[in-house]
Amino acid sequence: MGSKTFGRRAAIIAWSLLIAGCGAGAGSALIPAAPPRPLVSIPVPLAVVPPPPPPRRSAAPRALQARIEQLIRNFPGKAGAAIVAVDEDWVVQQGGDLSLPQQSVSKTWVAMTVLSQRDAGRLTLDDPVLVTRDDLTLFHQPIAGLVGANGYRTTVGGLLTRALTQSDNTANDRLLTVVGGPAAVRRFIEKHQLGAIKFGPGERLLQSGTAGLTWSQSMALGRGFEAARARLDPAVRRAALQRYIDNPPDGAAPVAIAGALARLARGELLSETSTRILLDTMAASRTGHARLRAATPPGWKVAHKTGTGQDFGARNAGFNDVGLLTAPDGRRYAIAVMIGDTAAPMRLRQQLIQNVCAALTGAQPRATGGDEDGT
After folding, report:
1. Using 50, 70 and 90 to split pLDDT, how confident is the model at 48?
2. Domain locations in the chain as residue ranges
3. Predicted TM-score (pTM) of this structure
4. DSSP 3-state assignment of 32?
5. d(CA 247, CA 245)
6. Segment 288-292 mean pLDDT
7. For labelling, which of 42, 49, 244, 347 has a CA lying 20 to 30 Å from the CA of 218?
8. What stretches of 276-372 adopt beta strand conformation (E)?
9. Which CATH number applies to 62-361: 1.10.238.10, 3.40.50.720, 2.60.120.600, 3.40.710.10?
10. Is-contact 162 168, C-beta < 8 A?
11. Residue 169 carries which DSSP code?
């Protein structure tokens, strides 16, 4: 073999070894192997349902604010009023942060608690309820005439209608036992962050405490409560009424109530069906024809709840009307007008509520004085 032939073979062998080295694994000193690429999972975005648009913001009407300020400041007593534009998100108020007695306005929160439990599947409006003589309360309770020795059989919905449209105290307190007592209503208020709204102990304890009495179920029969109250020393009654006015256990700020009603109207508190049930029932209210209703002109709609406290001499602690007003063009306004302590006659109290409402609606108020059926 010649030297040239040997050299060519050596070159071929060396070249072969070089090629083999190029195909080596990660330990090759010449070209390191690339690491394996990890699998990448690309998430598919879920469909996002946008929340309902917030109400459009606009400035509160200055003339309306000035009128509300004037009405409240000129009233001879402790009072407050608030109007919230549901669809425009403005507020006018005067004395709106005062804690004023709600009286039967508080039936609104009982009704909301009932309907929230309906939404949660805990009850239905068709659930049967027995009302017995042990359930009777005091003052305005039309259902009492139906409660015989064996009681009166009705439904949750029947009690709800009576409580809101007739302001029936017994119907309301019986609903309280259905939902779990005052604590359940307070939990609803707290859960939904309704603000400066307190809920009292129920009609019997609230009213007896305001009068300076200790409740006895015998007071529920006939006019037993009124008779027991009349026997009290006037000084005891006066002191008890003052304690109530100074720190009402059912006190609430008008601006908080109007804000809660605005949220109800927007569907933020209850299901659509329950919201409709509540507002339709409040629209059928038979109480307070000389309050908000008297300043609701043709074409406007009102769904409302009144509240009336006890009198002691010329003094009254709690005279209210709150609700939702709907204009002919569909715009909605939550309103709360509350009087906490005054010696003004009923006609002037009615006129204040009407005038606040008329400042919004443009109606010509009409005070009639003695048509206050219910509370």
Report:
1. very low
2. 62-361
3. 0.83
4. coil
5. 6
6. 96
7. 244
8. 301-308, 311-312, 315-316, 319-326, 332-342
9. 3.40.710.10
10. yes
11. H
